[in-house]
Each structure stands twice: as C-alpha cells, then as structure tokens.
Amino acid sequence: MVIGVLGGGQLGRMLALAGIPLGHRFVFLDPAEDAVSADVGRHVRGEYTDPDAIDRFLSGVDVVTFEFENIPPAALDLLAARAAVPLRPGVDALRTGQDRLFEKTLFREVGLEVPDFRVAESPESLHTAVAEIGTPCVVKSRRMGYDGKGQAVLRSPADVTRAWDQIRPTAPGVIVEAFVPFRRELSVIAVRSASGRFEAYPLAQNRHEGGILRRSIAPAPDVSSELQATASAHAKAIMERLAYVGVLAIEFFDVGGRLLGNEMAPRVHNSGHWTIEASECSQFENHVRAIAGMPLGSTSSRPAAMINLIGRPIENALGVLDIAGAHLHWYGKEPRAGRKVGHVTIVGADATATADDLAAKLGLDR
Amino acid sequence: MVIGVLGGGQLGRMLALAGIPLGHRFVFLDPAEDAVSADVGRHVRGEYTDPDAIDRFLSGVDVVTFEFENIPPAALDLLAARAAVPLRPGVDALRTGQDRLFEKTLFREVGLEVPDFRVAESPESLHTAVAEIGTPCVVKSRRMGYDGKGQAVLRSPADVTRAWDQIRPTAPGVIVEAFVPFRRELSVIAVRSASGRFEAYPLAQNRHEGGILRRSIAPAPDVSSELQATASAHAKAIMERLAYVGVLAIEFFDVGGRLLGNEMAPRVHNSGHWTIEASECSQFENHVRAIAGMPLGSTSSRPAAMINLIGRPIENALGVLDIAGAHLHWYGKEPRAGRKVGHVTIVGADATATADDLAAKLGLDR
Q1: Domain at A184-362: CATH architecture
Q2: Chain B from 289 to 318: CB within 8 A of any A CB
Q3: Going by C-beta distance under 8 Å and a sequence separation of 6 or more, which residues neighbour residue B35?
Q4: pTM of the full predicted structure?
Q5: Which one is the CATH code of B116-178: 3.40.50.1820, 3.30.70.3040, 3.30.1490.20, 3.40.30.10?
Q6: pLDDT tens column, B269-306
Q7: Which of residues 215-244 of B touch A (CB under 8 A)?
C-alpha cells in the first residue's frame, strides 16, 4: 500500500520506518526543502493549499494520514475534493484536534472532566472571561498552538493585555482555563482499527519545561488499574465518537488521582516514542496498521524512559551510544533553539534511574 | 554520515532502517530496476563494474559497505582506484568470503577445524579428489554459491560427472568436502568496531531445506557457555586476522558438541535477523555503528525464533499480524519460487513453540 502523509517531519519519518517493514511505501507532502522524511519516502515539496502539489502528492496513494494537526482547512477541502482515498484518522478528528474549544466540548461529552474554562475573541471579552475564571489562569490560543507556543499564564487580571499581545491569537480567539494544581501530566496513546478494535498503551508520565516535552516514563508510576482503565475508556469513547482510525494521544492532568482532560493530538505523539523499543508493536506501527486496514498489534510493553533531545548538535548526543540499552533516534534536522532534533529511549526495570544518570552525565535535559 | 552500500536488496534495506535513526543516509548501487532498498535511500542503478555508475554511487559517500559478497573483482578494483573512503569490512574479508578455499584456510589458521576437503579444477581432478575424500561427500563451487546453489551431494564416485555438469563451476573450480554427520548447524553473528572492540550475539540454531535457511532460533538450545565462548573466540580471531570492521557471520556444524567451520559471510546475515527485535542493538544497527566509527551497541538478547518467508505473496503472510508478539518484515520483492521475500520474528521465552504453532497454522515453512 502507498501511504500519503501530510507533513514530512520526524513523526512521518518514524511512521515510515515502522511501516516499510510491513510492505508499505510512503509519500510526504511538505513545503520544507529539507523535510527529514525524504530519507524514507518520496517527498513532494509544496504548500498544503497548492492544488498542483496536492495532485502530485495523491498520485498513486492508497490512504492519506497526517503527522501534525494544524493542517489548513483549505488543504482539507482540496483533499476532500480530489481524494478518492480515505483520510485517516479523518476530518472530524482533525477539526476537533485543531481547536481547544472543540476538544474540551468533546471531552465533556464523553464524561472526561476538564478545567473550568471560557472562550474569548478579543481583549475585552478576555477581561470578562478572566474575571469569571479568576487568577491565576492560563490563556491559550484555540488554534495553532504547539510546544507551549500560543500560551500565557495570567497571575492577575492586569496581565490580560500583555497576554493577548503575546499570543496574538488568530480567529477564533483564545480559551481561558482555570489554573489546576495538578500533581503531574499523564498521557495515553490509544489506537483504533478500521474494524473498530481498540487498544491502549500504559499511561506515560510526562515532564515539560518551557512548554516542551522533556521526558516521558512509562508505565507512569503509582497508576492503579482503575486509573489506567479510566484513561483507556475515555480514549475509547472519544475515538468511537469520531469514528477514529489510527493512533490518538490524550494528555491528562492528574489532580489527586482524578483525571482532567488537557488536550488531544489526533496522531502519533512524542509521549509515545518509547513504544518503539518497549512495546510489542509501537505507536508508529499500530498507526500504520490501523490506517492500512491491518489488524492491530499488541500494546504489551516493558518499562521505559524517553528523553527528548532539543536544539543540540548530534556530536552532543553521541555519548548516548556508549550506554548499553540506550537507543538513539536522530531526526536529521538542523539543530535550532527549542527544536526537537532527536530522542533517547531506555528500556527495562531500571529505565527511569538510567535515564536520570544519562541525562545528568550527558546534560541531555538542557 | 552518508553510507554507500553495494547491493540494494533486503539486507541493505534493513541496514538503512537501522541506520537512519542514527542520523545516517544511504546510497545503494544495484543493477536491478526494482531494488527494494530504493524505499530507504538513493538508488543508483548500474552494473558494479560500470565506472560511471561507481562514480555516481560514490558521490557524497563517506564509507562503503556491501550486502552481498559476490562482488566482481573488477568492481573492487574500480572502487579501490576511485574511492577516497574506506571499504568496510574490507577487501581482505571480501576476498576471503568469496572463496570457500580461502575461508577454510583461514578457519584452520585460527584453529577452527573444518571437514576434510580437497580442491578440484576439472572433472578429472574431481575424480581424484572424491577418491581421496571418499563418498558420500559434498561438492561445492568455490565461488558464487548461495542459498544452496552451486552444490551437489555425491553418493558414489560415479556421480562425479553429473555433479560437475550440474554445478558448472567457473574458475577456480570446486571444493570437495567430507560428509559430516552433524547434529545441527549453528551460527554466530559477531561485530568488530573500527577501534577493535568485539561483541558477539548468542549462537543461533538454523534449519535449512533445499539449501535455503528456513528457521533460526536463538539462543540455540543446549549450548554450554564453553561452546558459546569457543564460537565467539573463533569469530574474534578471524576478525582480527582480517582487520575486520562490521558484522561477520560464521556457520558451524555441531558434531557431537565439537564445532567445525562451514562457511562465513562478511556481512549481516539471515540467521541474525531475529536480533532486530530480540537484541538491545540489532546486527544491522551494530554493522552501521561499526562502519561509521561509532561505538558498538549491546548484544544482550532475549530468546527469539525467526521464520523465513519464501516465494509467497504478502496476502499469504498477513495472518502473522494477528499473532501477538509476531513481527512481520516484508521486503517489498516480487515473490518467486525459492526467493526470500520476508521473515517473521517471535520474541520471548516461548518463541520457539509459538513459531512452531504459527508456522503450522499459516503454512509458513512451505
């Protein structure tokens, strides 16, 4: 099968690395000249809204998926008009994942609580919203946010104008969330097949700094089987509601053992990279299996820790290769500040401790 | 680093799948239009002896390796004349691996016994050789044999002419080996780094039919630590003798607990495919690490079984995906009788039993 991927970054690259052994080939649409997926498939260079590029991209493709959710609506319209092939996970999932209001609405519909929130379309309505929610609170662009971009914490109502100017939200504006004193962030990676089969991986515990994921450990410590089951049930309900096919990630706040929904990503997710080595079938292989109409693989997993490599040259990460059991994934990108350029996975019962040692020794968390 | 590979079949493909996450890119020289490594790198289509193709292949390449040993000497001469980059494992390893006489000579030099043998260059000298060795015996072309091709078993001296006509050996003729009543075939996959570090994987036990590898299980059952150490020591001695850099495979006959050397392959090997899932660092990643001057990865391994998929269409192998813990590797080749088109790996303490069940259920051994 030929799989078309919107976006040609590291997620597309890892999808292909997992899907090629299943007999698939990959085509990537990405405007970047140096799209790193070009190493593992055909790269069509063009804008997502360029009809000509879309046509070249679709040529010979059997199914279309995406590696980022901020796909312009005009591109989706073009795809819908031209593609006789399925888009998986699908337009509903994509539109939901593109807008924090839609996400939260869906979360509530399936019984997943979220922090109290209001929407605002202007500095004026943001003032009102902040007054209602109270401070401290978090203002987030409804659309196009990632890696902490498009967010601001408000300590007092006086911060509203600064926050608005900092975020500079495009339509449809922002969302204001009550500040939740959460204990930790957890995420679940789940997959649903074309025939409706569902599987979830063990919950991961994630640590962010500066809005960027730094570390994930899985299974998250101190997770009861009830908590795992609750997270899985939420994912299942959301996926059924969206007639979802593929991998979905949901980030939760763990507030004293209660899960609140933070956000979802309708795609493979950074907090599931550890599944490459630690799971019988990785999130990447399972996404490919699902969208290709194949049966799902087992999500049975060993303990693992994942460290993101951010904005560093490869020379600075090669020390990883000296550590038995540490697996380097380099994405082939030019290092820039704040840019994810690779990750390291460690598998085994002492993965978390080994990751701590490794990160300290090689300065990987910097 | 850009890694050039002579040959663009499934071994090159799996080298790239393992090496791309380390930040490398791959270029393949292969005369075949449909070389399956083209999915994971730049494919230069051309004969190995075509100076123009060699030049296009070498452009931008930092190190050259190969995925098959039957590279024409003229191609090696061309490479030596043009390449300012290292060929790894190297010409000595390649010339040795190309000729059964050189292999056996080297085996004996490092103290690895081999079945009694004679060389022959003509039907007449083959008569003499067979008379000296006795029947039954095995006649093998010294060069260009693989997957059982270029071999014949002689039950009586009267079979000499038939065997010669069947093999139709090119220069420098054939080798006649005493028939060894071996208990099983074992193989060791070992790797040596550019700085001389050595690692070996646990011995695999291999089952051939019709001269083609069907199954490997690893670690081979009933292998004492002494036997493992002996196999590793032979590999180490051979690699040091050849100043070897990369992965080497050696096949042994186990004759009542005594190892006799059968043959070597100066490359990644079918009997090491199980290392992709079962070892901390696979044979493919370790070969890439070695030739790229990186430190070796751990060969620590879980038990595994590997089943070759031979000459079947993919539809006929997809049932594998329904089995938890079974990993499909499809090479993207057109199925033809006797052609290796993929393999399946099963990991875990009950891998061998699961492989038996799977093979029976899906008819994978046929």
Answers
A1: 2-Layer Sandwich (3.30)
A2: 289, 294-295, 297-298, 300, 314, 318
A3: B8, B9, B12, B28, B43, B45
A4: 0.95
A5: 3.30.1490.20
A6: 999 999 999 999 999 999 999 999 999 999 999 999 99
A7: none
